[in-house]
Amino acid sequence: MNASASPDPARPVNGDDGAPGFGVYIHWPFCAAKCPYCDFNSHVRHGGVDEQRFVEAFRREMETMRDWTGPRTVTSVFIGGGTPSLMQPGTVGALLEAADRQWGLPPDIEITLEANPTSADAGRFAGYRMAGVNRLSLGVQALNDADLKFLGRLHSVDEALQAIAMARATFPRLSFDLIYARPGQTPEAWEAELRQAVGHAADHLSLYQLTIEEGTPFKALFDAGRIPMPDPDRAADLFDLTSAVTADLGLPAYEISNHAVPGAESRHNLTYWRYGDYVGLGAGAHGRFSLDGGRKRVTIAERMPETWASRVEAAGHGVVEEEWLDAEAQGDEMLLMGLRLAEGIDVARYEMLSGRAFDPARLAMLQAEKLVEHVANSRLRATPAGRLVLNALVAELAA
Length: 399
Prior knowledge:
The chain is α/β, with parallel strands linked by helices. The protein folds into two domains: 22-272, TIM Barrel (Alpha-Beta Barrel); 345-399, no CATH class. The protein is 41% helix and 21% strand. The chain contains 15 helices and 17 strands.
């Protein structure tokens, strides 16, 4: 394998034909503790969770969503959170059975479950595998105990490595997350940690720069001057280092923050980035799926878990916000998502979806500035320089 070669945009990924696909996202919103950097919809319930009640609510909402989407060919299921690995394996099995009943899950499609090292248990992992999960996404976040403590994680490096080994022995596919650009992190320290991570990774790594999100404890600490962050130039250097090291070690970037052995890319996340359709089930979940007439329906569910369950029990779904996207809005979203990918976007599909073509003069200008490039004659992608200014690039292309 030539790790430094550019990805072939025509190569099928995980057995798919490169089409956008249709995903089922199931949100389990409960965590053992809330991390100080996290702005996801996650909640701590020290008194425990009535898993059976939530299973019934998911079943009911799936029935409603199936009525809305009609029959679809499912290409992936992703159980995210929160911390889904706090669920009993029987609960995971019941959720997958319910999804299969509504849409039909083809044999051997990608089924991912998110897990944390603190909830890693050999028996539990085996139970998830028996329920149908064939890909685990593990929230490691750092391979340094001091930084794990800073990030509010409940596990140690040793526990993370034990969970990784257990996952590799149980699931056909494994991904784990790391956060970089942490306060005081040098390029040398990050490279050493990254090389250690690749040595333990099975086929996929998700590598995110630390960001300060509104409404989090880290935002209050940052505003008080207690969390220093890398300047933009240092952050860009760390991004470039990340891309170079992972490519050299055989896990090139196929998306801005995601790196995989070629052929092991996340099929579910590719559905998002390729601007495919998906349903979002559970508290705070978002969905996007196409309707007759060319519009796309956006659904956003109630964020509070118990309130979501009560809404589902009363009305059959927990959706509290909806939007219908016209052709222009869909084109803009396709650009924003698709230009994150190394494979870029299919220009003909963009033109069909948005009802417009790129302005030739503006496109030529962006090519001259080495921000975009054509690939395989039919696709357009952002260059590494373009991905660093992606929002501005999308605005230029959409103008």
